[in-house]
Amino acid sequence: MATPEDTGSWLLYLSLAAKCGGDGQPHRFVGFLVVCAVAGLLTCLLHWSFPGGPAWGRWWWTRRRGCWAAAASVPGPRGLPVIGSMWLMTGLAHRKLAAAAGRLGARRLMAFSLGETPAVVAGHPDVAREILHSPAFTDRPVKESAYGLLFHRAIGFAPHGGYWRALRRVASTHLFSPWQVAASAPQRAVIARQMVTAMKQLQQSGASSAAGAAVRRVLRRASLHNVMWSVFGRRYELQLDPVKESDETRELGALVDEGYDLLGLLNWADHLPWLARFDLQGTRARCSRPVPRVTRFVGRIIDEHRSAPPAAAAAVDFTDVLLSLQGSDKLADSDMVAVLWEMVFRGTDTVAVLIEWVLARLVLHQDVQARVHDELNRVVGLDRVVTESDSASLVYLHAVIKEVLRLHPPGPLLSWARLATSDIHVDGFLVPAGTIAMVNMWAITHDPDVWPEPMEFRPERFLDDTSFQVMGSDLRLAPFGSGRRSCPGKSLAMATVAFWLPTPLHEFTLLPSPDPARGVNLSEVLRLSCEMAVPLAVTAQARRVA
Ligand code: HEM
Ligand SMILES: *[C@@H]1O[C@H](CO)[C@@H](O)[C@H](O)[C@H]1NC(C)=O
């Protein structure tokens, strides 16, 4: 609540009051305290009484005093005094925000308060476009955990400016360009075959076949290995037995998991600065643990690359690319650690989470799976394996992926929010600098005005219009965001998903777990991505004698 000036005047009042008390007139001292308390309480209530709650009220009363009657305010829930509506961001935030917006008739744009931080959330394609494409929203709010984990020097959280632009340019030419995505196809093929082998083993091992095999671990490890290969040039066998896994995979896997938890957490101190010094949730302490491990891990890989540069152009990985930068693009070692670590971190779980959702839908909707199999029989046939070049012809499978992105967008709130760097008009309302802006992509993709019968799983809806793009041009379904800060890894992610999905589907028919208690459960849990709360268990029946 208290700005520095506020605090200053309170201290003055208190010292005055203490003086009065010192004169031997305790009743005056007490009286003064009561006046202060009442004044404080009234200010709180006054701020809180505003649409959107305390952070918005404070802004209207302090910064816009005098002209506040002239403009309408963004509708939104008041929440509680001081803390506002922090709880909207806990648990399944996308659903809570959508429900609140529906209740208050604020679907297009809703204001709310995260403690002292004003926030808006857009639930309409037009308003979403306004935010994501506005030059005033090209920064991101940097959470304490992001600083703690060094992410402020990586692409995702770096403020909009020269450093960020240089990093994006390097990443788009050397990691995400169409040429690079195509060049890494053989690597994805190797890992795809490892996945099939792992799923066969999983199915054969007696313990799991009774309950169905949990595919999550296979998907996550495959994803991690894929990124470690592109970014660090490291190759590993997919190992189901954790004991036999390489130390590096295990270490990096654990670090990614820990980072995921920390960044996904709502840290109260981010929005209530007076709480920050207490570190009640232990965020600072928890962040400080993985950082030296990350620095040591990535630092060692950088040193190895320095001492042994790649012999062939084909063996160049992203670490080599960063090391080869010259002049103004040259990165300090600590920045390189941040950039590399972010790539591993961002590239790992997102892809695995999306594939798990698709497989869950296919297990649940056997008719759709049958159509996918028909298409695979037609395009690939049963006498050879799927290759990445087949995936362009799998039109129906692409429709399935789009429909899953619509029903289960991995980042329902587009993962990391945007920050207003100046006062800006959004949908006709004035929004102050410092506001956190979110797009509720989940609300848009579940809005019956945007998508008819939104709760139905119907891939066919994308067959009428196969040119529908999910890459950010159409805000009715933009799971990778849009505008200058949209996901740079989107084509790599789509290429990976569109190839890794048909591979096991070509080999197996996926049936639900024989244990009815472990049937497909579509409950969600929102960490950094929106994942299945109950890991998918499947029975895999071979379709092909290999
Ligand atoms: C299914 C997979 C993925 C989804 C759904 C996804 C989604 C997103 C979203 C919604 C954003 C924020 C966009 C915005 O603010 O407009 C984002 C940013 C980002 N993503 Fe992805 N992503 C995926 C895969 C990847 C992969 C594989 C990588 C890298 C290897 C990656 C790297 C990044 C980075 C670096 C940013 C920050 C960009 C910036 O701030 O300039 N993502 N992603
Ligand atoms: C699905 O999982 C959720 C969360 O774990 C649980 O509460 C719910 O009861 C499960 N539903 C069914 C039908 O098993």
From TrEMBL:
Keyword Oxidoreductase: yes
Residues that, per the record, bind heme: 487
The protein's required cofactors: heme
Superkingdom per UniProt: Eukaryota
InterPro entries given in the database record: Cyt_P450, Cyt_P450_CS, Cyt_P450_E_grp-I, Cyt_P450_sf, Cytochrome_P450_78A
Heme listed as a keyword: yes
A Pfam family per the record: p450
UniProt keywords, alphabetically: Heme, Iron, Membrane, Metal-binding, Monooxygenase, Oxidoreductase, Transmembrane, Transmembrane helix
Record-annotated membrane-spanning stretches: 29-50
UniProt GO molecular function: heme binding; iron ion binding; monooxygenase activity; oxidoreductase activity, acting on paired donors, with incorporation or reduction of molecular oxygen
Assigned protein family: Belongs to the cytochrome P450 family.
Protein name, UniProt field: Uncharacterized protein
Organism the protein comes from: Oryza brachyantha
Lineage summary: Eukaryota, Viridiplantae, Streptophyta, Embryophyta, Tracheophyta
